[in-house]
Design goal:
Shape: globular
Helix content: 25-40%
Number of helices: 5
Radius of gyration: 18 Å
Number of strands: 2
Distance between the termini: 35 Å
Strand order of the largest sheet: 1-2
Strand content: 5-15%
Oligomer: single chain
């Protein structure tokens, strides 16, 4: 088995960039396949917990589909999601998973690719799929104080 040594710059960048702060200031609508084979759906639970920890979860609507792909979901669902996000940004009216799902059939009449939203689905907590990091499983993972501290550690942070 061939072994490789990690690039130190990449290790530094990943260590700094892989923890989220939850500092979201604009509407975010996610679309995730429940059976995504690449990025498992529990990542969405971690993302929600991060935004909640940052008191920004009001900016988040998460939608889920009964599909089994990573980046090739229904065209009707993509159009539905983009339109729902655009409407939210323009009008300030936050959609719900149910209202997003309910608007999909109109787009499916155009794209004929199906609507597979599961408006009632909520992913299990991230820790049910991934062992916690040493020190606990609390989210928000990267607090503002930790970000400031880490930015002063040699070898940590995005290279200028």
């Amino acid at each position: 088995m061939e072994r490789f040594t990690a690039d130190p710059t990449a290790v530094r960048d990943l260590s700094y960039d892989s923890d989220l702060t939850g500092k979201v200031a604009i509407p975010v609508l996610t679309l995730h396949a429940i059976d995504d084979p690449t990025a498992f759906v529990e990542h969405e639970a971690a993302y929600r917990a991060t935004l909640k920890g940052g008191h920004r979860d009001t900016y988040l609507v998460q939608t889920f589909t009964g599909e089994h792909e990573h980046s090739r979901l229904s065209d009707a669902e993509y159009a539905t999601s983009i339109t729902a996000l655009d409407t939210w940004v323009r009008t300030g009216r936050k959609p719900s998973p149910s209202t997003v799902a309910a608007s999909c059939p109109a787009f499916d009449r155009v794209y004929a690719t199906g609507c597979f939203y599961d408006a009632a689905f909520r992913p299990a907590p991230y820790a049910t799929r991934v062992n916690s990091r040493p020190g606990g499983s609390r989210w928000l993972a990267m607090t503002a104080a930790r970000e400031k501290t880490w930015s002063r550690v040699p070898g940590v942070g995005i290279a200028p």
